[in-house]
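Following up on my earlier thread - several people asked me to post the actual chain instead of describing it. Fair enough. Here it is, all 347 residues.
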Amino acid sequence: MAGMHRRLLVVFLALVFTFSTGASGITRASGTYLRHDQVSILSFPTGIALADSTIYVADSGHFRIVRFSLSGKILGQWGSPGSGQGQFGPSGEVNPGSRTALGPTSLAVDRSGNVYVADTGNQRIEKFSPGGGFEAAWPINPAVYLVREMAVAAGSRGNLIVAITGSSDCPDRCAAYYILERLSSSGTVLGQWTSPRLSPSPASYVISHLAVTSSHSGEVFVAVTGAAACSKACPGVAYVERWSPRGRVLGRWSTEGSVPSWRPLALASGLGASLYVANSDRSTIERWSYAGELIGQWGGKGRGPGQFEQPGGLAVDRRGSVWVADSGNDRIQRVSASGRVTVPWPH
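Reply from S.P.:
Thanks for posting it. Predicted structure:
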């Protein structure tokens, strides 16, 4: 009888594990979805968002959202590849190390603790309760009918900021501009603005990555990385655009002549009118003024504390500490306002 109970327990645990990990081993043109049990706790984490005592991480390689305590203890997780409720499609990006497809790369938390995920692969925003329960989903602007990139951030007034780029009026599916939307917590569009087109030639570039953040005063910052769409070798473009709360472009700045090899993959508004930028090419975290002046930077390629490998997510807490999704090292790091680095986790 005891043996029977043990066998039933094994079957039950197997069913629970299968349910919790969702679909696995699914092959697509862009790569293979990694199973949750194939690699470390995190696989190429990107998006990161903070609540009072909780941190949410877009575990992009596993197509899930993981909820941690501030000390790194796992409090919950949800998501799997697919198009159903609580599932996520491929973001269009790949893990540069394994060449496997990545799931959602951007998420945000509102004042009530609700979690919003930019589900680029399914062209929608998904809303979840603080514990991960599915609440709602709504499609993005129909004017962009082929989404290439999408990023979401919490606004200063309890709303959401969404940046979208895709194909809308180009025969070759170019995407030389992006749309910025302000949404209510229920998905109602409160405002919409279109960015200036990429220069020097819209036909020669396509926006390959977007990141967005909002300041305490309501200003919005968007990091744009543009890849060359021409057949011959041509340089890409990268810059940060600053918007007023009412949708007017206040300025644009890049690193020409100051910081070479610049690829801004993540943004976070900090204390004292400062903006943090994750420079993936140099694996550094940079601090800029809102006017585009470089204040300082730290990090560099490596696996030690305070070193990074293609950082892809940033968040700043109330004390001014910067939380970094150290994507290439499959971990999270925190750097205090005084520059002290905590022990990375998971470790």
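The longest helix spans residues 2-21. That should answer part of your original question.
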